[in-house]
TrEMBL record:
Keyword terms: Glycosyltransferase, Transferase
Lineage, broadest ranks: Bacteria, Pseudomonadati, Bacteroidota, Cytophagia, Cytophagales
Organism name: Algoriphagus lacus
Record flagged with keyword RNA-binding: no
PANTHER family in the cross-refs: BIFUNCTIONAL PROTEIN PYRR
Protein name: Bifunctional pyr operon transcriptional regulator/uracil phosphoribosyltransferase PyrR
Length: 182
């Protein structure tokens, strides 16, 4: 399998710091702001952002994990049942500014489902989307991120892989590969 490196560990670290400074600029003291990581892959990015925000600004922003499995429009159309992940949100989003975080924006289906799932916790004042990778030319839904690490032009035959050291990989990295044809 051929792999092309998009961002290495150092570039990802720079991107995460940039995200934090953008959030600090746009949300002042984070008084009315919460951050949600989309399960399963957005939660690692969320944890890194929350820790960096605390390190940089000293502010601990309320955060949680959101699972949108049962809100997906393709939930019952799969050959195998999807396995749900845990939603961990111990606050309401009613009237709050919500920053929704995911690793890769592809078709937009997960983000659309997350918007539906989020409503169970109240109606937010505003929702912003942060993604590490924006696969720009593949959208099924008119969803655009507010914060983007890197934009890539990919084909449907390609796959974006985000590797985190926390998952046992040697270091953080983002790759583009060809999808398995089998």
């Amino acid at each position: 399998m051929q792999k092309r490196l998009v961002l290495d560990q150092q570039q990802i670290a720079i991107t995460l710091k940039r995200f934090c400074y953008q959030l600090i600029e746009n949300h002042d003291d984070f008084e009315n702001t919460v951050i949600l990581g989309l399960q399963p892959r957005g939660t690692i990015l969320l944890d890194k952002i929350v820790a960096l925000l605390k390190e940089i600004s000293g502010i601990e922003v309320p955060s949680g994990y959101l699972d949108a499995t049962f809100h997906r429009d393709d939930f019952r159309r799969r050959d195998f049942p999807l396995k749900a992940n845990e939603t961990k949100i111990d606050f309401l989003v009613e009237g709050k500014k919500v920053i929704l975080i995911d690793d890769v924006l592809y078709k937009g289906r997960s983000v659309r489902a997350a918007m539906d799932a989020m409503i169970a916790f109240g109606r937010p004042q505003k929702v912003e989307l942060m993604v590490l990778v924006d696969r720009r030319l593949t959208r099924d839904f008119p969803i655009m991120p507010d914060y983007v690490g890197v934009k890539v032009n990919t084909l449907d035959s390609q796959h974006v892989i985000v590797e985190w050291a926390e998952q046992g990989f040697p270091q953080d990295a983002i790759w583009i590969t060809e999808k398995d044809k089998s």
